[in-house]
Amino acid sequence: MHSSPTAPPRSFVWTRRIVLTLLTVFAVTPVYVMLSSSLKPLEDVTGSFQWIPSGLTIRPYLDIWDTVPLARYFVNSLIVAGAATACSVVIAVFAAYAVSRYRFRGKRLFTVTVLSTQMFPGILFLLPLFLIFVNIGNTTGIALYGSRGGLILTYMTFTLPFSIWMLVGYLDSIPRDLDEAALVDGCGPLKALFRVVVPAAVPGIVAVAIYSFMTAWGEVLFASVMTNDVTRTLSVGLQGYATQTEVYWNQVMAASLVVSLPIVAGFLLLQRYLVAGLTAGAVK
Amino acid sequence: MRRNRLAATAALATALSVTAAACGGGSSTGSEGTNDKPKELTYWASNQGTSLEHDKEVLTPEIEKFEKETGIDVKLEVIPWDSLLDRILAATTSGQGPDVLNIGNTWSASLQATDGLLAWDDKTLDKIGGKDRFVPAALAAAGAEGRPPAAVPLYSLSYALYYNKAMFAEAGIEEPPATWDEFVDVGKKLTKDGKYGVAVEGGNPVENSHHAFVFGKQHGADFFDAEGNPTFDSPEAVAAVKQYVDFLANDKIAAVGNAEYAQNQSIKDLATGKAGMLLWQAAGSSLKAHGMKPEEYGVAPVPMQSENPPEGQNVNSMVAGINIAVFKNTDNLDGALDFVEFMTSNETQLALNSTYGSIPPVKEAQEDRAFSSTDLTVLREVLSTTSAPLPQVPDEAQFETLVGDAMKELFADAAAGDEVTTESVQKRLTEAQQQMQK
Amino acid sequence: MTATALDTPPAGPGDKPPAGRGAARKRRRTGRGRVRRGALPYLLLLPALLLELLIHLVPMAVGVVMSFKELTQRYIRDWGEAPWAGLDNFRIAVDFDAPVGEALLRSFFITCAFTVLAVGFSWLLGVTAAILMQDAFRGRGLLRAIFLTPYALPVYTAVITWSFMLQRDNGLVNHVIHDQLGLTSQPTFWLIGDNAFVSLVLVSVWRTWPFAFLVLTAALQNIPREVYEASAIDGAGIWQQIRRITLPSLRPVNQVLVLVLFLWTFNDFNVPYILFGKSAPESADIISIHIYQSSFVTWNFGAGSAMSVLLLLFLLVVTAGYLLLTSRGRKAASA
């Protein structure tokens, strides 16, 4: 938030208008194509492009529920992505706090190891991870393979490295005086973390949560192998509209828009927290 | 300092390798299945119908009959094609999988090589009525030659020539072409005013490779020698691939845009009259979905060569279809065999194949009137007389990918205006062959 | 990573706390409270460590073991029994004179070019939008949601939609370029031939830039308002503020962001896989697809794992180099 005493200069306002318009067109055009395709009869979908579709129908929006169990997939995705995000963010905040505020032996080893896991090509450890889950199931009776729990564990780990790193970056930019003051006031380190550091890091935490959620929401490769028809998530389930005999393009688009709507609405709601910012005065 | 970290790393590595070793030996081996859980059965079905839910609706009443007869509780899961093979591979590696499963029949030899599926020797086949019940060509597409099949055929399909009757009439063509020379002639007559003779799925490697196989057979190319080694770039194979690519490149009876078709746009082109002919397997329901009525199109066998090259064979389709297999790690072997017997019984075959628009690979079931409509008659004839299974070798998947890809690139070259010659085809196919390691 | 600790006197970032006996002596000297606090960071890290071990590190180790085995379909059922291949899998992959190695190398270079372009544009768009939207204006919240939409759509549908738009005969892109603007004499192929590379970069940027935008927007919130106020009093214009204050303060977040974008884009599988199917055109033969073909399609998991391990080694080297360079830059900047 620039609070220059004067309004931003004209050159800046015009640049902003032009650039943001172009970006909007870039971001929205495919969404528009999806929307118009979702309202077309199947035989028109792959037809030559028209800005205004000629024949409109809402049938795809009614059919999507019968072609695949969309509601079930949606709930599965919500549970998996929601739980993975919640756990991952909490664990990441702890870890990031330790890395940002403490010196300890093995810190470098920890950060480098964690970061390096981001380089692991999924294809390389898909089968091994599957084997490990099956083995855990055989020896302990905890069913990770085919269950939502296994997927939640997998996804929260996928997002941990980046979340930790990002949060370390955000926490580093929060003045240390803040939590040192709290410590001097007699707060324990954990209390200082939750009372002072977390509130100040809200934008970063929200950004990291959105990232975790979207990663879990969209993952395809592991979900396709680790789930069965009861636990299947949306990202894999949507492919059910492409069947052996026919690809229901209009329904794919309709279903995607329907399931994305709550997510985009969630983004809108989170706006507030994204700009919550470091209200330095209030904490001091 | 450094030594400390080294020690830590070493400790970690040891811990990891111990865990890894513990996990590695997980899959149970050797066993030919047990009967530990005689009242339970898991069945992975492939997607054959218009949707996964549709498949469940079709299969459930049949499975209920089986459950009633045997008292076995069958857990059905319909798996989309995109994940079926990955799921099977994961199941094979871990030993944790279904009891009975559907497989694409082109995977048969590769899955056979994993040793994860029950081998159907004559004794086992006798338990479900003997191998003579099945159409030989379909059974031949269930594993490598000379070995007991890894599965038994469940649904069969073949390629056919679909054509637009109105466009034929308009151009004064009375008979569908029976040879490729006639095919190109007809194609040229139909190609005018933005319409084309034929639509090809040039950007789809799998589809390309199926055509390469048929043209190859007609030219006398097998793509694999007797030892299972690839022979992608033999002169016969080059001639075969070139003949197909030439529809777009030199005969110009296919639209340039076809080079990027990979989402079944060619079906739509036939249905909307943009192209007059299409080589496809069981296109009926898709054509209907695009608004083409059954009386508007004709179905004929895929053309042959006017004069067979020396080694050429009278083959005009691959044996396409789905096989049903028993997973070796099953804990209900008898129940699994009973289930396969049930699925291949005349009654079930009739019910399922007629719903799915496929041909029963069981001889007796095939005789039923349900399969005597014009297009199914053509498919059935082709299947029993002039079809051949894709190479039943473990490396079959590489053939589909590499040769199919090479053809995709050739189509792309042609579309970009580059000339497609015997040399350029040869070069692509040689490159494809070189990608086969080992 | 340049954090100063609360419980030790400030020290240079390169310094390490005393190790081994030295540490023990120190702990004894500083009493019980210190001991407990010394354990605290480890307790905080424990859950993360356990998860990483279970989901990432152990499976990865197994994957590395696999790369030394001859793991074709003949052995996957009991891969413990698969014969050791020694370095054979690696030897084939790095023999750049032979066709397999040559193809891998070409795929590698294509991936490098693709990654540089895609990450560069994504970051550029992200930082531009984040800075332009730092000040409140009407409709900013809505615009933010719109910009994040590509990120919220299921990747399968989003990419399929792009492939519709990029079709030669019926696509929106050619409709605009060729039919409406008349810029080309012939409709262009976007999905096959050399242009496929351009399409891949375009779609990838479309998917990725909202994420850069999100992260940078959050980072901008942490720049204290007073800094801007002070510079405004000194007479700095808005462009100067962006150059002197905004961009330098984004540095720590940028360091991570660019690196992670690089790693994701390099390993990205979904976008090329959905856009082109199992076989990418030569010009867009990305390494992840290449490896997928070498393991899942051709069922040679040993060879596929070996290629993955090589890829991993490369990424490790690049990352190490990058971190060294940027930390040095950061130190220089803060000095």
Would you kindly provide a written description of the structure presented here, covering whatever features stand out?
The complex is a heterotrimer of chains A (284), B (438) and C (335). Chain A has helices at residues 10-38, 42-45, 59-67, 70-101, 107-116, 122-140, 148-172, 176-184, 189-200, 202-218, 221-226, 234-237, 249-274, 280-283. Chain A is flat. The two termini of chain A are 19 Å apart. The longest helix of chain A is centred in the N-terminal third of the chain and has 32 residues, at 70-101. Chain A contains 14 helices and no strands. Chain A has a domain at 69-241: MetI-like (MetI-like fold, Orthogonal Bundle), CATH 1.10.3720. Chain B folds into two domains: 40-157 and 320-388, D-Maltodextrin-Binding Protein, domain 2 (3-Layer(aba) Sandwich), CATH 3.40.190; 159-318 and 395-434, 3-Layer(aba) Sandwich (D-Maltodextrin-Binding Protein, domain 2), CATH 3.40.190. Chain B has 18 helices and eleven strands. In chain B, helix 2 links the parallel strand 1 and strand 2 (73-79). In chain B, helix 9 crosses helix 17 (396-415), helix 10 crosses helix 18 (422-434) and helix 17 (396-415) runs antiparallel to helix 18. Chain C has 335 residues and is mainly alpha-helical. Chain C has a single domain, classed as MetI-like fold. Chain C has helices spanning 21-30, 32-67, 88-94, 99-132, 140-152, 155-165, 172-180, 195-220, 225-233, 238-249, 251-267, 270-276, 287-297, 301-334. In chain C, helix 4 packs antiparallel against helix 11. Chain C is globular and about 75 Å long. The model of chain C is unreliable at 1-35 (pLDDT under 50). Chains in contact: A-B, A-C, B-C. The interface between A and C is large, with 119 and 121 residues.
